[in-house]
Amino acid sequence: MYSRIRDLREDKDLSQTKMAGILGMSQTGYSKYETGENDIPTAILIKLADFHGTSVDYILNRTNIKKPYPKTLKRK
């Protein structure tokens, strides 16, 4: 299910160790996300989407459109 995070990481020529460092976690913890052994917390999904310039839906295979959604304004 999370093969897209591996593909996105590899597209940037990053190792799991480097990606884990960017996220502030261990390589082992990050590896478990890529293999699907552990679910990815929402906060990490958002960080990954922002870092890779895509949407959470793309990472979760809910869309094949890689382009991120436009940012919305917060309501008052």
Write a concise keyword list for the protein shown above:
mainly alpha; 76 residues; 434 Repressor (Amino-terminal Domain); single chain; 54% helix
Structure report:
- By secondary structure, the chain is mainly α.
- It has a single domain, classed as lambda repressor-like DNA-binding domains (434 Repressor (Amino-terminal Domain)).
- It has five helices and no strands.
- It has helices at residues 3-11, 16-23, 27-35, 42-52, 56-59.
- It is globular, with a radius of gyration of 13 Å.
- The model has no long low-confidence stretch (mean pLDDT 91).
Using the coordinates above, name the CATH class.
Answer: Mainly Alpha
- Give the SSE order as H and E letters: HHHHH
Please work out how many helical segments DSSP would assign. 5
Stretches where pLDDT falls below 50 for ≥5 residues?
Answer: none
Largest sheet: none
Summarize model confidence as the mean pLDDT: 91
Radius of gyration, in Å, reads 13 Å
Number of strands: 0
Helix share bin:
40-55%
Question: What is the secondary structure topology, with strand pairs?
Answer:
Elements: H1 3-11, H2 16-23, H3 27-35, H4 42-52, H5 56-59
Helix pairs in contact: 2-3
Structure at a glance:
The chain is built from five helices and no strands. Helices cover 54% and strands 0% of the residues.
